[in-house]
Amino acid sequence: MLFWLLNRFAPLLEQMEFYSSGDSRVFLTARAALASVTSFLMAILFGPPAIAWLKRRFCERIDSASERLNELQASKAKTPTMGGLFVIAAVVVSVLLWGNLSSRYVQMALFVAIGFATLGAIDDWIKLSTERNGLSARVKLLVQTALATCVGVVLYREHLHQPHGLELIWPLGNHGVWLGGGFIAWSVLVTVGSSNAVNLTDGLDGLASGCMVFAGSAFVALTYLAGHAVMADYVNVPFIPGAGELCIVMGALVGAMLGFLWFNCYPAQVFMVDTGSLPIGALLALAALVTRQEVLLVVIGGIFVIETLIVLMQVGWFRMTGNRLIACSPLHNHFLFKGQHEIKIVVRFWIGSALLAIVAVASLKIR
Known about the structure:
Elements: H1 2-9, H2 28-57, H3 67-72, H4 84-98, H5 104-129, H6 137-159, E1 167-170, E2 175-178, H7 182-201, H8 207-226, H9 229-234, H10 246-264, H11 273-291, H12 294-300, H13 302-321, H14 331-337, H15 342-362
Antiparallel strand pairs: 1-2
């Protein structure tokens, strides 16, 4: 909306106008910053009434398969949940205000945010209003796959005629492997995997939201660089025309995460659950797919990756031996079982996430 107004009045601002990205002429850097501030303020201002509304309707139910985990988290019962509703609302409104709505990448981001949030909300609503444990794993995976396939098809068509557009890029040396039509299946794998990885990490107060601040910030930089012809060449990443507009989306996501963390830090006043974790994980994947930095996504989202791998290893080991590899998966629950305080676990995971984001971005200049 505001992008449209800026574009209409651009001739009146010729003395102030600058090219902030390889293909965007309307104050990209400023809009990214304003999108972040807007979503943060929306989360902060509308958070309290949203939490009060959620408290009357949707409160956490502690009923995991582990009795000990239920005991350790008993104090969290009755905490308002489905806080992802106001997180995603803040992101969407901020993008509508500051983003270029004619951009295919922005359109896909809105589709991903709303589509995955709707799936998460339905899953959470079933958990909270019935005795069922949400949607069945099969149905949930099928819907995620369908949404991710739509994104993959559109991305394939957008990248088909772009240099490196369909390559899997190895950051060190910028070598690429041609994916061709397999790009669509790869996109589905990355999107569904990232969405579920963030969901698995969302188990302690402020854990997923804090890690997303660092991961999202890294992709604000990467999307900006990928959309700027000169800077993309300087840091040796593929130049993707239009990718810069995604830094508006990622900036809005970081701002919303910071605002949500205000209420989600220990002791949490609200939980994000699937309504928030599924879409933010999918948005992270979209940014990686557009910029062709899926390998860096593994590093930047290393905390999410480790949490997911530990779950898979725990399940596999238990099926093979009948014993548990660690006390309780995901990994953050293992440390909880070992007696570490929740705050210490979360802050250490934040530190790990920050370091991984720094290492990933720094690796762009390693030849």
